[in-house]
Specification:
Chain A is mostly helical and about 220 residues long. Chain A has nine helices and no strands. The longest helix of chain A has about 35 residues. By secondary structure, chain B is of the alpha/beta class. In chain B, helix 3 packs parallel to helix 5, helix 4 crosses helix 5 and helix 5 packs parallel to helix 6. Classes of the chains: A mainly alpha (about 220), B alpha/beta (about 350). Chains A and B meet through helix 6 and helix 7 of A and helix 2, strand 6 and helix 3 of B.
């Protein structure tokens, strides 16, 4: 077998590293943007046409750029942030910018699902806007937020496969350089199986959490 | 307590302007259970929301204990809102929190010690009869129980006003009754002024002492419940009243009038208050040379005062019948002779016709 265990294990770590770090920062970015999109929209607790009309198109722009293009297009910015444009860490910057806006849309949807009556009750109690977000909106949307983050994580795993383009490594990179370019179908198969297993695992964990929080089954 | 002064509210949606409230003048006194009734779209939801400024009036002002909340600072407004509890048609409880956490929520928004919170929450949960459900989640409760949680949550900050926004509209009649009884206890034991909006006349009949009827954003009638019930001034109010007080003359009575003639007079006797307890009918039969036959009757209780009507057939000479009418007629009893009813008789003609065809 061409591909050795060492390379595979290293690739798995690289993938997990890229996914977890960019998920962390992407979630923070997405959370801020998502909450902003919800509360500044028309009729919501901190309606602000100006902020909404800036944030909304920005999110759309980042959502519409294919990741492989974003990856190379922001190389100068990446260099500015992490000091290099090559390697695993360099892949994290575009991954964050890719997944952040995606997460923001998911969070926006989750928060909008919360019954308006809850917000009305909160206002009637005299809650501040911050309290409404913190004590009413987020707890009510939490199970759905967990599913959103799960979905985003899986999307992120797909995106890391392209990180090879900037030398980011990871499972996708192994599949392409060892498998595809050397006609090694076994390697492709093995990496795909590992990726499928990771995705399954993450989805199951997400589902279990969501169910626990919703107290069903 | 709550005073609406020329309150108007218009919504602009696109190019259209919708007037939800138009020059509403209304006063809710301390200790009232004030009911506002109207069909959906009459503006009553908007009206109740102007009290705690979930909706701000376009013009006019709402005074709470003499204070216009639109003029106070945001911080002060949040404090004032703790004085105004609110319950909702769909309860609006947090599904992610237990009954205890839901009820505690208003207290957690400002600084209270854990002990204070616990004591107060248990106290109100006991009051609404849910002390055994503190660890349950809303989706494990029935509709009536959810509304009890809503009431407990509204009471936890010790308000002096409780707003009820169609609070029983999502409940079955049995549960509605028990929730209304609870609201009455809230009014009596905590001395809380209650403002209720509803489209169900049953609710008004059951607990309100004063009412207002709304239509197209305007208050078309208001006053003491007995006055509005016994003497509604507008068509809408009449319709609402007749939905709970059956004062329509039944078909069977008209049918009787067809059969009887001359000596038979049908009287409709409306009464309010104590007179319903007096043996008018038996007195009439003794005093005058007439036969009295009760055809139909309905009695309702409003504010523990009996209120209703009787339809009686009086058989005798016209002179004696007239004397009878004069005898019964008083301040609290109103007598009218029932005459034939054109439109209703058409039905008879048709059924007769049917017979003709078959015969």
């Amino acid at each position: 077998m061409e591909v050795n265990r060492q390379i595979l294990i290293e690739a798995i770590w690289e993938t997990l590293y890229m996914v977890s770090i960019s998920l962390f920062f992407g979630a923070i970015l997405g959370f801020i943007l998502g909450v902003t999109l919800v509360i500044t929209r028309k009729g919501h607790i901190l309606e602000n046409k100006f902020i909404f009309s800036i944030v909304n198109p920005i999110v759309n722009i980042f959502r519409s750029i294919p990741f492989i293009i974003l990856l190379v297009a922001i190389i100068p910015f990446t260099r500015l942030i992490v000091g290099t444009s090559i390697g695993t860490s360099a892949a994290i910057v575009p991954l964050v910018l890719h997944v952040g806006p995606y997460i923001s849309r998911l969070i926006e949807n989750s928060l909008l699902e919360v019954d308006e009556g809850i917000i009305e009750a909160a206002k009637a109690m005299g809650a501040t806007p911050f309290q409404i977000i913190r004590k009413f909106l987020l707890p009510e949307a939490f199970p759905s937020l967990i599913l959103s983050v799960t979905t985003a994580t899986i999307g992120l795993i797909g995106a890391t496969a392209m990180a090879g383009a900037v030398g980011g490594g990871g499972l996708g990179d192994v599949a392409i350089t060892y498998g595809y370019q050397r006609f090694d179908n076994v390697t492709i198969l093995v990496t795909v199986i590992i990726l499928v297993a990771i995705v399954q695992l993450i989805q199951s964990i997400g589902n279990v959490f969501e169910r626990k929080l919703r107290r069903v089954g | 307590m709550i005073e609406f002064r020329k309150v108007s509210k218009t919504f602009v949606s696109g190019k259209r302007t919708i007037t939800a409230l138009e020059n509403v003048d209304l006063t809710v006194h301390k200790g009232d259970i004030f009911g506002v009734i109207g069909f959906s779209g009459a503006g009553k939801s908007t009206l109740i929301r102007t009290v705690n400024l979930l909706e701000t009036p376009t013009s006019g002002e709402v005074l709470i204990e003499g204070k216009n909340l639109q003029k106070v600072s945001k911080k002060e407004l949040r404090e004032e809102k703790k004085n105004i509890g609110m319950i909702f048609q769909h309860f609006n409880l947090l599904n992610s929190k237990t009954v205890y956490e839901n009820v505690a929520m208003p207290l957690l928004l400002s600084k209270h010690t854990k002990k204070e919170v616990e004591q107060r929450v248990l106290e109100v949960l006991q009051f609404v009869g849910l002390e055994d459900k503190i660890k349950s989640y809303p989706d494990q409760l029935s509709g009536g129980q959810k509304q009890r949680v809503g009431i407990a949550r509204a009471l936890v900050t010790n308000p002096s006003i409780l707003l009820c926004d169609e609070a029983t509209s999502a409940l079955d009649p049995q549960t509605t009754k028990s929730i209304l009884q609870l609201l009455r206890r809230v009014n009596e034991e905590y001395k809380i002024t209650i403002l209720i909006i509803t489209h169900e006349m049953e609710v008004i009949k059951e607990i309100c002492n004063r009412i207002a009827v709304m239509e197209n954003g305007r208050v078309i009638e208001s006053g003491n419940i007995l006055d509005v019930f016994s003497n509604p001034q507008t068509e809408t109010a009449r319709n609402f009243v007749s939905s709970v007080v059956h004062d329509e003359i039944p078909q069977s009575v008209y049918r009787l009038m067809e059969v009887h003639n001359g000596r038979s007079h049908i009287l409709k006797v409306d009464f309010v208050g104590v007179s319903s307890g007096q043996p008018i009918i038996s007195q009439v039969a003794k005093k005058f040379n007439v036969d009295v036959n009760i055809l139909f009757g309905s009695i309702t209780e409003l504010q523990s005062i009996p209120f209703g009507n009787l339809i009686v057939e009086v058989i005798g000479d016209s002179k004696e019948v007239q004397k009878t009418i004069n005898f019964i007629q008083s301040d609290t009893v109103n007598v009218k002779e029932v005459k034939g009813h054109g439109s209703k008789q058409t039905n008879f003609d048709r059924s007769d016709l049917g017979n003709v065809v078959h015969g």
